[in-house]
Amino acid sequence: MDSVTSNPASTSTLSGKRVLIVGGTSGIGLSAAIQANDAGANVIVLGREPDMAKRVAEGHGFEGWRSADVTSGAELENALSGIPKVDHLVLLAGTFVAGKVLEADVSYLRRAFDERIWSAIQIVRTLGDRLSKNGSLTLISGALADRPTPYGTAVLAAASAAMEAFGRGLALELAPLRVNTLSPSSIETPLLGKTLGAGRAAYVDALKQSLPLRRMGTAGEAGAAVVFLMANGWMNGATLNIDGGSRLV
User: Distance (Å, rounded) from C-alpha 200 to C-alpha 180?
Assistant: First the structure.
């Protein structure tokens, strides 16, 4: 098949490849894991809770599971020690760290960077040569990188923006390994419910009316974007916005 008619983004390129998704036990990560598994990839998910990681992996027929607190270098090294090779690494872990700079505990605010930048560094260093140069690394940022709010999101916005710059730098440092960043917004995930609590329904209803598509995005749609970044061999050093156009309003 020639270069004009071939499809470099076909998920068939994932068949037989090992995909490790950190933060792959729920939400966007789990959806990406299911879709990669359906495309023939050998999927390993890593989550914080071992029981949940095991249940998810066994329930969906994944190759395996691991558990670790991504802010603990020792736990990450132990969790990743038995994995011989990773073709596609996806790092989606991170909680919603919200607190005003003049009010919140600094050790809490640090988690925004610890769960993102520093955990990514630890994981990439731990895998080392086991991370295939012919594969990919997908990071996650978020709409706050472009549009922070006055409601205690300054540090999280900074961490999200840092992930995008970090991804561009790694695309050069780790070449020919491809490195991209997914920037989602307004996605229906379990994290949204945990963050908003009892006020979730009212917030979501109001948000939907402000969005161009008048609805929230799904974990499946965002997960498909992750799979696209893994499968398309010409995507590199990019930030992919998947937000239904919410950054435009």
Answer: 31
Q: Specify the residue for token string 């961490």.
A: 159
Contact (Cβ atoms closer than 8 angstroms) between residue 176 and residue 130: no
Give the whole-angstrom CA distance, residue 143 versus residue 161: 9
In the chain, the domains with their CATH numbers are: 11-190+219-241 (3.40.50.720)
The encoded tokens of residue 207 equal 């948000």
- 0.70 exceeded by the pTM? yes
4 token code pair: 């004009």
- The vertex-111 CA angle with 110 and 117, nearest 5°, equals 90
Cβ atoms < 10 Å from Cβ of 126: 17
Q: In the 8-state DSSP scheme, what is residue 49?
A: -
Q: What is the DSSP string of 105-144?
A: -HHHHTHHHIIIIIHHHHHHHHHGGGEEEEEEEEEE--GG
Beta pairing partners, 208? none
3-state secondary structure of 242: strand
Q: Which two tokens stand for residue 235?
A: 């995507």
For 143-182, how does the pLDDT look when each residue is reduced to its tens digit (9 = 90+)?
999 999 999 999 999 999 999 999 999 999 999 999 999 9
